[in-house]
Amino acid sequence: MELHILEHSLKVASIAKEGIQFFTHGLIKLAFLPSKTRCKFFTLTETPEDYTIIVDEEGFKELPVSEFLSVAEATWLALNVVSGGGSSSSSQPIGVTKIAKSVIAPLADHNISVFMLSTYQTDFILVRERDLPLVMHTLSSEFTLLRVVNGEAVAANSLGVTNGFVKPKLVQRPVIHPLSSPSNMFCVTSLDPVTLPSVATILMDVMFYSSGVKESAAPSDDLEYIRFFSFSLIEGYISLVMDEETQKRFPLNVLFTSASGELWKMVRIGGQPLGFDECGIVAQISESLAAADIPAYYISTFKFDHALVPEENIQSVIGALRTNEGGGQ
Question: Fewer CB within 10 Å, N or C, the chain?
């Protein structure tokens, strides 16, 4: 398999919910007018705590400086596993459980923090740019390493990256974080960018008015329901993660959904904000799912992590993960 190192230099940021009105103009441009912003990598994820933004340098220019904006230190690069060559974003998703042993676990073993983003099309593993030499050294035996330059994949070892560092000792992974599973069910879907204008009003309503009177999806007595919505526009491909009530707000013929109408349950990881320096969280979850052969999408946000698993597997997933709580990651 090939590991593509994408050319985007990414920022990971959080927008406080009480300040979202200061950012809506820029976010609407990023979501609906990418030709104006020249942004190639943009994702916006709303959780109960905040909005998480992952955006390239061009897109970051659209965000105002504000006390409501928190930016993770360092620049991040996106890695993408491609099976059998081809375009990274148009390939079928490998799945976080399929890359657990070959990518995620080895990086955790070498104390490299990762930030995961699963989309409808594929899975991105974000690593800090400064960690790239160690990332390449760690994964070079398993993958053909290619770096995307001006849209073309070239051999990464021709870019002057050296192995002039001391290989770290394998680290003991920390104990798993608290888990919870919200009551609502989710779908992972997409739409043709050509149809984006036809649902722009619905999308803006979902993105920015969830805390207003227009949001009625959650039963008032359902304390386990959480607000979670993710929109990605990456290299021209759109991905959406939303709960089933939100999905009903879209026209039936717009979203790409499976014939079976597959729904996913969420496992939310973390009791307190996880931070960016701890290693092994994604590995702990993905390795357990891989061992049970359970497919999953995985989305990291600024404060917590989220795994989506098939509805019928949720109890066995929770059981398997909690069995590991007493051990190390």
Answer: N
